[in-house]
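Worked example 4.2. Below are the chains of a multi-component assembly; read each line carefully before continuing.
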Amino acid sequence: MREVTKQAPGLAAVLVGNRRDSQSYVRHKIKACEEVGISSFLAELPEDSPQDVVANVVSNFNRDPSVHGILVQLPLPKHMDEEKVLDAISLEKDVDGFHPLNVGNLAMRGREPLFIPCAAKACMELLLRYGVELIGKNRHHATVSVIHAHSKNPEDISREADIIISAAGVPNLVRRNWIKRGAIVIDVGTNPIERWMGDEIRDECHNDGVGFPMSIGIVTLLDEDPNSEHGYYLTGDVCYEEALQLVSAITPVPGGVGPVTIAMLLSNTLDSAKRAFGLS
Amino acid sequence: MREVTKQAPGLAAVLVGNRRDSQSYVRHKIKACEEVGISSFLAELPEDSPQDVVANVVSNFNRDPSVHGILVQLPLPKHMDEEKVLDAISLEKDVDGFHPLNVGNLAMRGREPLFIPCAAKACMELLLRYGVELIGKNRHHATVSVIHAHSKNPEDISREADIIISAAGVPNLVRRNWIKRGAIVIDVGTNPIERWMGDEIRDECHNDGVGFPMSIGIVTLLDEDPNSEHGYYLTGDVCYEEALQLVSAITPVPGGVGPVTIAMLLSNTLDSAKRAFGLS
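Applying the procedure described above to all two chains together yields the following structure tokens:
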């Protein structure tokens, strides 16, 4: 593309406040841009920024022809109206796919959204790449059951599934009795657990034989800040070790859906740039 | 409201072509408007109307301050781009709730669409009015499974359900073995079956003891055109007589979800008028 356009695709990230996990996610996204030759632009704003300042930053990126994708890292600080900030992103640059028009066009039969939300696209991409057939395949005609915080006996519903996709944000939610033998598990949960540096990471699903959770590692520089006394590690929604004994395939956390989600963000940015350059 | 505004809410219907069932649906909607004091405007256009003529009719209704709701009766003739025609309806007057922005806002957590699609709203209203608790109740936290044309063993999934909502458009799809004893069935299917006037209506799910479908009536003026040699009758997706032996409640077709859907259309039109008059 650069040979034709002399211009690289560009991704702009807006980060408000100082959540460690958000900072880390944004860093990963920018690093991924560097690796594939996408220009990146980062706006970091303090926690107490007024909402119109954030909206203004978004507007400037909307107008900037070298920016083809804009992502606002969520969650925003509590005093902000997340909906208003997200709605300010121009539809053509909404590479996260969070604009309600994109969501509506994704939900409606016969319509095509400009962008598919990256984590959902990552799940589909993983299934596709590993050759998992969704029933009927034609536009993914699978039977979908949505398990909910208020669902009675969620494990009974989950245990019927050929493919389990968990995005609950609850560590160790999906246990052995939730999983049918031979099922495929995609763990979208990325739950940051804060610990002191050097603490042991324990797997709450297993005890060590004398009643304590089994140690599975030590908290090191997982937040990539060498001056910190704190560290954190990421854990998914699924008891990985338990699941491993039952499943035919499973994505780990970290290192599973996360990196593929970032790849989909880059892919959406590339699509956006192609549309802007009239190449699609 | 009229005492305050001196103006009635107004609903505009656009009907293209001469499908008997569409004509009948639109007539029912206009009649319902008359009954409750909502002004109605009907644009009937021939089957072969160019798309820009239809779009122009919609635009005029968009600009007309006495119109607060616009519905385009579907399906449109095959030569038209349904998506483009629907997108031409102003978001503020989209009382059918088919605009992708409304669908997106309906799908997304924490957002409110301007209008909820009438048939879906009718199902919720029926459950509410008859005191059926959806699990957790708070914003309707039910566990939802979507059965699909490509679902394997759909009857096994359906038989697990406390509440079955069928909107497949397939007569006699939901049989005895799809239904758990005590379930609640909402039949959204409205399938027009064409027959000659005076023909017997037969229930395909039951035979008369000698191998023929049981007669359950005679085709009369169900399409309300006294000069027609044809009649049609409506049937739902569910074998009503079979279901009746198992369910704790069921909606009939006709006379179930249909009239409530029209009531929801009027309710959306009223909401729209209130917003236009600054009364909400």
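Take a moment to check your reading of the output against the notes. Chain A is about 30% helix and 20% strand. The mean pLDDT of chain A is 87.
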